[in-house]
Amino acid sequence: MSEDSTLENRVYLFKDLASAWIRAHGAALGDPSTREHALRALADIAFVCATVADEDELSPRELAEALRNG
Fold first, then answer.
1. What string of DSSP letters covers 8-51?
2. CA nearest 55: which of 68, 41, 42?
3. In the 8-state DSSP scheme, what is residue 6?
4. Distance CA 32, CA 28 (A)
5. What is the number of domains present in the chain?
């Protein structure tokens, strides 16, 4: 996979997953007491998206292991 398509996959995955998370938990971003936790959650989503896009040759089991080992 080319570097451009990997980056594009990261963006599409993050856009979809982050949008879903924000729809469900968006208020946490506006609340100073939960903002840090919300930003960490979005960072975790970004990590998952990057790993999934970068490791397209792994089986689902191998991908799950790669995500667990961060």
1. HHHHHHHHHHHHHHHHHHTHHHH-TTTHHHHHHHHHHHHHHHHH
2. 68
3. H
4. 8
5. 1
Q: What is the pLDDT of residue 1?
A: 57
- Using left for φ > 0, alpha for ψ between -120 and 50, and beta otherwise, residue 49 falls in alpha
**Token match 């999934």: residue?**
52
pTM score, whole prediction: 0.83
Q: Give the span between the Cα atoms of 59 and 64, in whole angstroms.
A: 9
**Residue 23 contacts residue 42 (beta carbons within 8 Å):** no
Show the low-confidence residues of the chain (pLDDT under 70): 1-2
Q: Is 23 buried (19+), middle (13-18) or exposed (0-12) by CB count in 10 A?
A: exposed
Domain that holds residue 15: 3-69
